[in-house]
């Protein structure tokens, strides 16, 4: 079974952290919310969430990591040397790395976005030095997935799931995502 870690520090965006967890757990993927410093982490909207575990050396056993946005959560992750080190290690090992909203600034600081196609929340693209920034809801370039922001969280979660080798079509339909996309496509 694949194992994914969602890294959280105070100020994380809760939709961007919890939606991929929800999508992946519905598909029976092992996902842990990992507090970088504590088992309780407070989001950017002052919601305190109980983590599954606190960051430790076992992080190296995971198949991928997810970095949510939110402020100051994304900058807190970017400024944590442990996060930069694990992102670089996962990149060298070609493991899944996913970041959404402001989260790609962590990948930029780790130096793994050079010539990679990516997206992020508007305004943060200036911090993605060397990246091939694209306007898109979600971008995937090899083992790196990036998402635009909270509204992209479901597509971001489905893309992570598919990158792990799972078919997301039943989940998309069961969660009414296909219905939503069909309604949006037919609005006048």
From TrEMBL:
Domain of life, per lineage: Bacteria
Organism field: [Clostridium] ammoniilyticum
Pfam families linked: DJ-1_PfpI
Protein name: DJ-1/PfpI family protein
Membrane-spanning parts: none
Domain DJ-1/PfpI per the UniProt entry, residue ranges: 2-162
């Amino acid at each position: 079974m694949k194992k994914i870690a969602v890294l959280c520090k105070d100020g994380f965006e809760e939709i961007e952290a919890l939606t991929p967890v929800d999508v992946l757990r519905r598909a029976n993927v092992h996902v842990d919310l990992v507090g970088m410093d504590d088992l309780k982490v407070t989001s950017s909207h002052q919601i305190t969430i109980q983590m599954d575990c606190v960051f430790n050396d076992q992080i190296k056993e995971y198949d991928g990591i997810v970095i949510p946005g939110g402020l100051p959560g994304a900058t807190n992750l970017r400024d944590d040397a442990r996060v930069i080190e694990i992102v670089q290690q996962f990149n060298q090992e070609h493991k899944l790395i996913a970041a959404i909203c402001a989260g790609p600034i962590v990948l930029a600081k780790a130096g793994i976005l050079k010539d990679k196609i990516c997206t992020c929340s508007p305004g943060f693209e200036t911090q993605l030095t060397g990246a091939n920034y694209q306007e898109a809801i979600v971008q995937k370039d090899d083992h790196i997935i990036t998402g635009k922001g909270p509204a992209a969280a479901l597509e971001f979660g489905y893309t992570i799931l598919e990158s792990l080798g799972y078919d997301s079509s039943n989940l998309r339909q069961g969660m009414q995502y296909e219905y939503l996309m069909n309604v949006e496509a037919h609005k006048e």
